[in-house]
Each structure stands twice: as C-alpha cells, then as structure tokens.
Amino acid sequence: xxxxxxxxxxxxxxxxxxxxxxxxxxxxxxxxxxxxxxxxxxxxxxxxxxxxxxxxxxxxxxxxxxxxxxxxxxxxxxxxxxxxxxxxxxxxxxxxxxxxxxxxxxxxxxxxxxxxxxxxxxxxxxxxxxxxxxxxxxxxxxxxxxxxxxxxxxxxxxxxxxxxxxxxxxxxxxxxxxxxxxxxxxxxxxxxxxxxxxxxxxxxxxxxxxxxxxxxxxxxxxxxxxxxxxxxxxxxxxxxxxxxxxxxxxxxxxxxxxxxxxxxxxxxxxxxxxxxxxxxxxxxxxxxxxxxxxxxxxxxxxxxxxxxxxxxxxxx
Amino acid sequence: xxxxxxxxxxxxxxxxxxxxxxxxxxxxxxxxxxxxxxxxxxxxxxxxxxxxxxxxxxxxxxxxxxxxxxxxxxxxxxxxxxxxxxxxxxxxxxxxxxxxxxxxxxxxxxxxxxxxxxxxxxxxxxxxxxxxxxxxxxxxxxxxxxxxxxxxxxxxxxxxxxxxxxxxxxxxxxxxxxxxxxxxxxxxxxxxxxxxxxxxxxxxxxxxxxxxxxxxxxxxxxxxxxxxxxxxxxxxxxxxxxxxxxxxxxxxxxxxxxxxxxxxxxxxxxxxxxxxxxxxxxxxxxxxxxxxxxxxxxxxx
Lengths: 316, 301
Hints:
- The structure holds two protein chains of two kinds.
- By secondary structure, chain A is mainly alpha-helical.
- Helix content of chain A is 74%, strand content 1%.
- Chain A has one domain (88-311): MetI-like fold (Orthogonal Bundle), CATH 1.10.3720.10.
- Chain A has a two-stranded antiparallel ribbon.
- The radius of gyration of chain A is 27 Å and the shape is globular.
- The two termini of chain A are 45 Å apart.
- The model of chain A has no long low-confidence stretch (mean pLDDT 89).
- Chain B is an all-alpha fold.
- Chain B folds into two domains: 15-55; 59-296, MetI-like fold (Orthogonal Bundle).
- Helix content of chain B is 72%, strand content 0%.
- The longest helix of chain B is centred in the first third of the chain and has 39 residues, at 15-53.
- The two termini of chain B are 44 Å apart.
- The mean pLDDT of chain B is 91.
- Classes of the chains: A mainly alpha, B mainly alpha.
C-alpha cells in the first residue's frame, strides 16, 4: 500500500491552508455571477411582457377593443383608419395552411423513408443535407420566393394575370422548404424510437413494409410527429422576411393562395421600415400586433412542450 | 432449409397478398423521390443563385459602398457592419449563455426556480425574432437611447441567441459523466475548480459547436435588425475604436440582400444573388466548422 507522504514543504502547505478563506470568497462570487447570468433570461421574458403589454394597453386607449376584434378591415396607414386584426391573422393562417399542405406530406414521406426504408449509409448522407436547409437564412428563401417561384415559375407558367407579383403561394412554398427539416428530422427521431418489437410483431403476422410503417410505426410515433408539426407552425407564424418580401402588403381576409396578402409579421416589418415616432398609434399598433403574434406562437410552443412531457417515457 | 438441399424453393404470393407486396415495393421509390425533393430544392436554389450572381462577384463588389447604380454597388459597409455586430454579440452572449448553462447544470438547487428557468428558456427559444426586434426597439433604441447603433443591434441579437446557446451548452455539460466530477471533488477540489478544470474542458467542443450554430443564425438575422432601424444607407467605414464604432448606425449583409431583392430593376437581382453566394459560403463554413469540431473532439466516456 502506498504511503501518504506529508508535503515536504510544510510552509507551502500552511500557506495553502491560509488561502482557503479567499477561495471560499471566490467561490461565492463566482456562484453569484453565474446566478446573475441565469437571471438574464428571466429578465428577457419580463422585458418582453412589460414592453408588449405596456404598449398594447396604451394602444387600446386610442383604439377600441371592438375596432380591433370586431372590425374586418386593417387599414392603419390611410384614413379612415381601422384596426381589424383578423385580416392580418387571416394572412398568417393563409401561409400556415398552404405551407403545411406542402411540407407535411413531404416531411412525413421523408421521415418514413429515412426511418423505415433507407440503409444506414443513405440515412447518414441524406439527413445532414436536409438539415442544411435549416441553416439557410430566411432572407435567402425570401429572395427565391420572389424571383424563382413567382417570377421564373408561377408567372410564366400560369400567366401574369393569374398570379400577382406578390402572392401567398410563393411564400408558402419557401416556408414549407424552411420547416421541412424540422418536420422530417423530429418525426424521423420519433419513428426511430419506436421499439423493434412492435415492427417484428407486425412482420411476423405477414405485414408488408409499407403496412408496418403506416399502421404500426406512424401511430406509435404520433406524439413526436404532432410535436414536429406544432413547432413547424410556430416557426411559420413568426417568420417575417419570406412573407414580407414575397406575399405582399395588402391585408386580405382570404385563404386564396394566389392572392396578395399581409401577415402579422409582414405588417410589423412594414412599420419598422418606416420611422414610426414613439407614442403614435402606428408605433403602438406594432406592439398590439406583436402581442397577438407572441401569444399565438406561445400557444403552439407550449402545446408542443406539453405533448413532449406527457408522452416522452412511453416506452421506457 | 437443410444445407444440402438440391434446389432452392421460392414461394410466390398470389392474389391479394401479391398486390400488397407490390404496393409496398413500389412505395419505396415514391418515398425516396419525396425525400429527394428537399435535397433537389437545395441544389436548384444553389444552382440558380450561382448562375444569377457569380458574374457580379469581384473585388469591387466587396470594397464598394452601396449605390443606386447596381453595377457600382457593393458590400463594403454591410460586411463591416455584420462583422462589428456579430463580434460584439459574441463577446456579450457567450459569457452569459455559458454561465447560465453552468449554473443550471452544476450549481442550481433542484427547486421550482430551476424548473421555471428551464421552462422559460425553452419558451424564449421559440419566440419569433421580430419580437426580439421590437423589444430591442423599445428598450435599447428608444428607452436606453442608444439609437439604431451597433451596440443596440448586438444587444438585441444577444438576447435572441442566448436561449439556444444555453440549451446547446447544457447538452454538452450533461454529456460529462458524474464520475469526472466525483473524482475531482474527492481529491479536494472546490465546486468551481471541478467545473473549471474538469467539466468545462470536456464539454468545450459541444459548447463551441452550439455557439457557432447560434452565431450562424445571428449572421443571417434580418427582421430583428430592420426593426431596430438598421435598414440604413451607410457609406462610411466604422472607426476601429470600439467606443466610437459601437455608437455608429450600421447595416448588415442580410439587410443589403433584402434591399436589393425588393428593388424592381432586374440588375439588382444579380447583386442580391452575389451577396447570397457570399453569405451562404460564410454560413456553411460556420456550420461545417461546427460539424468538424463535433466529430474531431467527440469523446465517449
């Protein structure tokens, strides 16, 4: 057994003992600094709530609730002004609807292929390429929506009369490309986590690969799939550049994909580009619309978190 | 089947079973085609950008200020603005984000406050960037009276990227096994010494990867910076003295791309495409670096 040698340099040892209170102090200081860091994120939330709600309350001193919630016209910049939020909400729902129509089937097919059909080698190649789509800045997608989808494909294909230069469809296509990695990747994770036994049992009863995928794996992974779609919806609702550049700035209560529309985020950017003076109703409308946007994304994000928390340990 | 059987017997399904098998076999190609759509999109977009923009890339394009003439306009001020804003954001965000992650994983008492901090971070990560933009506008530009300056932009981006940087750093710190901590604590290291000399070095590749991915997200951010007023015409270089430069108005490459995209003249489309090529090269370089660091330093305990 090794003999523990006392420190040959005893004064050094005593020195280090004397330093210990200092270390304690340092330790406490560091701990306090780290705690302060953690409070930055809490302060951010507090600021968001104070700023959004504070300016929104001021907004409602100038504009009545009934004008905001019951009027169907959003016309803040020219007289007679009216602030009916539903035209902007409809614009947002328009792009959410059409981007999901495109992204969900393709995302599901991709997830099923990667999880159930692809060899490990193909999966290792395909998944990173797909995830690279998530790293593309959205202003780049916005450029493609306006120039490639609208000017190069839709207008020559369908005629300039049928497709206005700003239309919700071009934005929806690029929004779908934007959320495709989220939907495909998270759904694929959920499908890969379905235990082997379930698949083997189905194969044992004579099911084909497609039947196993659609009737066993997809239902078993449904909570993860729903979470991926909810997170995708939240991203589409909050995305600004694609809709601001490609979908137009005409508030329009319609689900028509070839109409020129304006979303909540699109309106906010339009005000941001101008120089709305603090205290004006334009400036405050920014925060009223922002509050609506914040609450809508929060609902989808929280719904996703609740599902994750509720179903996470199903197979463990 | 016995090994010495003279011939292999194959059973062929007939009728409904054969039809089901055929459908399943066919489904492979349909699903593959659907999965390749995303990849194809990436290549088509890359291809048309290069065709549109490659002709505009030159030294002049990098060194010219913006201009109302497409062929004289360049990225000088927006590139410098991007570098200044990102640099400042990195300096401000990293200590706070990594500090928060360390506090959550190593120091925080396991109580309701911790649960709330984690829940709060998850929700902040999902807040749209334009909300951070109007927050920055109200708090930094107007209330703190910083104006649409580099500092205001960096503070806004800092608040935006802290949540995702914290979450990535937390994951990296969690990967360090408890035995490392126990060994350090057992020989008399304090809690902070354990973290500083043992946990952080092991977690560093994961933290760096997370930081790089967050920075690449900030590099492409457009809406939040437009909201604080960075949609500006800048035709001067920022001072090299940070105290001076941080107060300057600024613009960034993504905002310049937006500016060129919304102009009706065809010539600006080439400018936008050329700027996109440069921005994408930078973003992919960052992502590739992150992936390489993750692979190179991957440690399994």
